[in-house]
Specification:
The chain is 27% helix and 30% strand. The chain has helices spanning 33-44, 57-64, 86-92, 114-121, 178-194, 203-211, 233-242; strands spanning 2-7, 27-28, 31-32, 48-53, 67-68, 71-77, 100-105, 108-110, 127-132, 141-145, 148-153, 168-177, 218-221, 227-229, 251-256, 259-264. Strands 1, 4, 5, 6, 7, 9, 10, 11, 12 and 13 form a ten-stranded mixed β-sheet that branches. A two-stranded antiparallel sheet has the order 2-3. A two-stranded antiparallel sheet has the order 8-14. The longest helix has 17 residues, at 178-194.
Length: 266
């Protein structure tokens, strides 16, 4: 399985930091967001990663080159990143991911064991990573039952009065096997692009497949694993507090009842 990281966007809500730096290179406690992701991929044994770059993409290439630890890196450039959304970035990588993929967005921060925990619990499954929906969250949600997604609702389809009581927030991390990629995801993705829908979120493809019953999508709760989507300067400040003191391999931070605690690994 290859990892695909989407890192083409401008990160306008992170200005002025993104005036001269791509969002995925913004440091959290001195380390770029993308480095946290690559460390987690390396720890999980993922040996190949495709990064779709766009805005100031040369800076990402200059920083990580062709390898990070045991992870080989290939870059694909979205030259029209300003006029397209992430569905187009995924489509550009279509020839690299037909054997299966772990899909990540380049602004998601998580600790080193995150990906290893995900893949270890869901070997061979098609899975979406989720967390319990909270009032401050925004974006696509999943309604599930007994560990499977029944419905996936994009933000645009969450009408006034939408009931979030049982909603699960997507973490923007997905894993799909070869069969699903070749027979379902990539053909439907191409249908959208060929029809001109280049300014959509890629999740519209997943939501469509789930709603019609074509895709059996397991849901993986983050549990005590830390994660943070960094969209704003306020998010960045919270992330630096949340991940302060995290040392590779020495400790892990856990979330219990909304509080952080430190737990030694033995």
């Amino acid at each position: 399985m290859k990892a695909l990281i989407l890192a083409a966007g401008k990160g306008s809500r992170m200005r002025p930091l993104t005036n001269d730096l791509p969002k995925s290179l913004i440091p959290v406690n001195g380390k770029p967001i993308l480095q946290y992701q690559l460390e987690s991929l390396d720890f999980a044994g993922i040996d190949e990663c495709i990064i779709v770059i766009g805005y100031l993409g040369h800076m990402i290439q200059d920083r990580f080159r062709s390898r990070f630890g045991g992870v080989r890196i290939k870059y694909i450039s979205n030259e029209i990143f300003a006029e397209t959304n992430n569905i187009y970035s995924v489509w550009l990588a279509r020839h690299e991911i037909s054997d299966g993929m772990l899909l990540l967005e380049g602004d998601i921060l998580f600790d080193r064991s995150f990906i290893d925990n995900l893949l270890g619990q869901h070997t061979g499954k098609n899975v979406a990573v989720v967390d319990k929906f909270q009032a401050h969250m925004d974006g696509t949600v999943i309604l599930g039952h007994r560990g499977m997604a029944n419905n996936m609702v994009l933000k645009a389809d969450q009408a006034s009065g939408f009931d979030y009581k049982h909603a699960l927030k997507t973490v923007n991390i997905y894993a799909f096997d070869q069969l699903v990629m070749k027979n379902l995801f990539l053909p439907r993705l191409s249908d959208y692009i060929e029809s001109g829908y280049v300014n959509q979120f890629y999740e519209v493809v997943i939501a469509n497949l789930v709603s019609e019953g074509s895709l059996a999508l397991a849901i993986h709760s983050t549990g005590v694993d830390l994660w943070m989507e960094i969209d704003t300067l306020e998010d960045l400040s919270q992330a630096e507090e949340m991940f302060s003191g995290v040392e590779s391999g020495d400790l892990v931070l856990s979330r219990v009842s909304g509080n952080l605690k430190r737990r030694n690994i033995v």
